[in-house]
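stuck on this:

***
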Amino acid sequence: MRRNVSLLDYIRSALTPLENHLIDGYVDGRVGRREFLRHGSLLGLSLPFLARVTLAAGFGAAPSVVRAAVQPGATIRVACNTPTSEIDPTRGPFLSMVLLQQVGEFLCIDGPDLVLRPCLATSWKPNQDGSVWTFTLRKGAKFHSGGEMKADDVVATIDRLADPKNPGNALTFFKGVLQKGGTRKVDDYTVEFHLDAPNGNFPYLVSSGNFNVIILPASYAGDFEKTWDGTGPFKIDKYIRNVGASFVRNDDYWGPKVLPERIEFTFFADVRPQILAMQAGQIDIINKLPAFAGVALLNDPTVEVISLKSAAHQPVHMRCDMDPFKDPRVRQAVALCLDREKLVTGLMKGRAAIGNDSPFAPAYPSADPAVAQRKQDIRKAKELMQAAGLEKGLQLTLTTSQYLEIPAYAQLIQSWVKEIGVDLKLNIIDRTSFYGDEKLGTSPWRDSVIGIGDFGHRGVPNIYLSGNLKSDGPWNASQFKNSEYDALAKSYVAALDLEGQRAVAGKIQRLLLQETPMLYGYFSDHLTVTKKGVVGVQPTAMGQLFLQGAGKA
């Protein structure tokens, strides 16, 4: 297809230098279509506009997706994990987000392709350096209690989450990014976010990728389980703790007509009974199926497996302030023992991507693909152990939790490091005890010389870079303290353009290969299983489930 230069010039004439820089990269081939759509959406450019640019640039239209016809009025039955505490958007817990987002909504949606889509905000734009982001709000979106969602509700919601007095999960996301009072009303349908420092990925922090930022009425005073008040496509019908929840269609929803009449969630303590319930025809959807435990369904002809690339991972930390891992050569030696291809093909049944010892998953467009992949090299690992004076070997204890495939992962590491003389004992405990209060001195996770944690997917790597690896990170289990890394992480967060992010990401990736405070062996795919004939289900790698278009073919 030929490039329409005059149309492209006309389109570009109304854009900012930052937006034109992205188009330059796309036209010149430095930025691919996926990266162009994802980063364009981050800058607030609509998908129809980005498609127009693609056509004008001569790249042709994206292939159309043929969707099965959906019969309205269905009851959709979903299996999910049991929430572990009170349902409250301002605090969590993580396991409740699939329920919360049936009744509540976000300013924008972080889709399965990491492309941001409008929701309660219709558009957003940064200022020149990304320190202020302006969001235009949707008109006509009503809370279930009757009032229209406006700027006062957004300001109150974000201030509540950014308040140091509120010890919720979102506070970790907003710390050093946005303070209480930084969210300001311009008019009823415009809000400005005045950030602590420039942040090129900020819209993801107020998207579905940060599951706590469901917009609530300004008058919200707690007791969410009594009201379930949001703007979402479904309304609460019934909620019974530790048993399940049901929702009915919101006929006053601002968006396209909601197709299902009813959604029923059944809670399970483990994935195995969910699999049995699917096989017995008692449920239509398993929201999240771990590949390791879900082998029985992966090739079952009676179900469909929706597989999404994600950044979810099980990081292996090595305490940089404790022997023997004070010496980076020992950390590198352990890293060189991992057979990453076997982790993906064997442990994860092919439902994962190989990791390269940094949180930059292949799913992230900002990851630098030019960085060499670390591979198993036992000979080199033995040389490093000898150089560190440990050629006679040593004994260590790895502490981790009885969760997902982690015990099997620990056993593989145990067998691999034996080849370089490391006698690795395993201390596998229940997940609640493993994390404890997540503080040094009282948490087996934080206190272990080597251990394996677990982190879910995020649409951008910011929280991993700051929370897990910065010197003052709240989840810095390896006690890695490196001023060069801290400066690079700050530069990455501030970068507005994709090529700038990728350049800094490459430096971070190479530095982490050199220092190796943590091992990132693989990134798990997110798997959602549906019964054959159930269509229109839209999961995200975060674990959300958008069901307003779901039904039975």
